[in-house]
Amino acid sequence: MRKAISALKNDTPDYVVAEFFYGYGNNYAGVNVSNLDVFLYSLQKYAPHARVVVLVDRRERQFVEKLSALFPLHAVVTQPVREQDMEPLFGD
Q1: What's the pLDDT score for residue 33?
Q2: Strand ordering across the sheet containing 51-56
Q3: Which of 38, 31, 35, 37 has the alpha carbon at shortest distance from 22?
Q4: By the 8 A CB rule, do 8 and 42 touch?
Q5: 3-state helix/strand/coil string of the chain
Q6: Mean pLDDT of all residues in 32-44
Q7: Residue 66's closest CA among 18, 21, 11, 9?
Q8: Contact by Cβ (8 Å): 34, 22
Q9: Domain-by-domain residue ranges, the chain?
Q10: Stretch 46-65: mean pLDDT, rounded?
Q11: 40 near 61, Cβ under 8 Å?
């Protein structure tokens, strides 16, 4: 994650595609919803116009709503992901 955040400082992406893992309260201490929170806060600072595409396992799909309440998400794609699922997301 540190390398990804460092890369944001040097290169502003148009899109970010990231896999979502819900926190379940274990090592996130109840502060963060998922593995993406810290990165998405940095994204707001360094690339506020980047669109975020989240890949999620269908068993964790219900928890993405908590993330989307905190951060704007361009799309959420349930895994397994096929090429035809992704193509329409990058059309503009």
Answers
A1: 85
A2: 15-19, 51-56, 75-78
A3: 35
A4: yes
A5: CHHHHHHHHHCCCCEEEEECCECCCCCCCCCCCECCHHHHHHHHHHCCCCEEEEEECHHHHHHHHHHHHHCCCCEEEECCCCHHHHHHHHCC
A6: 92
A7: 21
A8: yes
A9: 2-78
A10: 95
A11: no
| pLDDT category of residue 32 using cuts at 50, 70 and 90 | confident
Query: Which amino acid belongs to residue 82?
Result: R
Residue with tokens 């905190």: 70
Q: Copy the structure tokens of residue 6.
A: 């460092």
**pLDDT over 70 percentage in the chain:** 91
